[in-house]
Amino acid sequence: MDSTAAARAARRRRFAEAAREERPDLALLCLLIAAEADPALDEAGIDAAQIELDRLAGLLPYAPAARPDTAPAVWARNLAELLGTRCGFGGSAADYRRLESSLLHDVLRRRRGLPILLSVVWTEVARRAGAPVYGVALPGHFVVGFGDPYGRHVLADPFAGGRLLTDEDAALLVANATGTAAGPGLTERMLTPAGPLETVQRILNNIRAWAQVRPEQSAVQLWAVELSLLLPSHPAQLRHEHAQLLVQRGEFTAGAAELEEYARVVAEVDPAAASAVRRQAAAARAMLN
């Protein structure tokens, strides 16, 4: 194994171990994802990004001793003033076209990114400062919540510089992001705090989607799938996607073996699908001849 492959293997072991911690470090997991895209992001670079989050947290004014019903809004406004106004963190439509918008170290450097990565910055800075903060995985658009998700809370949209949202604003945001008609409002399930692993999986899904429409970026799609498979819980369908990618990239033996393993997993619940996958495996092996 050459040094590059050894470094990648060590990084992935660290990612798998970090994902299985009792309290996964969201920033570290995001930075390990970034290191897959940017091998120059070494241990010193990862430390520097964590230090930058610490520095930003040190600039955040502590929320004054306000009533419980007003403190969440104070925290949200302070974050918006610091990160959105003073530091210029935000996003635009153009950021959806850049892989860097999904890489935490680049988002910290450029101060531009996708809603979910900007929300990671918001939550990590606020958490370090002691704020009652959590990510909110709304359909089509990730935002940040302050306070009690099931009681008095405030939502903020880091993509819009930290604009405060009413629940009605958030419902309209979901409707616009998903292309659906605005419904009666947000459900309790939508407002459930997103845990670190759910957030990481959604980031990897975004990277896979970015690469999937760019055939020349199949290597990016491959590592995003392989990192997803290292998470403690993941959709079984990812095994099939992984196998198909290996075959598309000319790794026929490995792809066929993965297809056969996936067929074994789904055989009990969907024998017809398993048979179709086995035929795909046979076709992949035939390409070796």
Automatic annotation (TrEMBL):
InterPro entries in UniProt: SirB1_N
Source domain of life: Bacteria
Protein SirB1 N-terminal domain segment(s): 50-205
Matching PANTHER family: F-BOX ONLY PROTEIN 21, SI:DKEY-261L7.2
Annotated family: Belongs to the UPF0162 family.
Protein's recorded name: Transglutaminase-like domain-containing protein
Native source species: Streptomyces celluloflavus
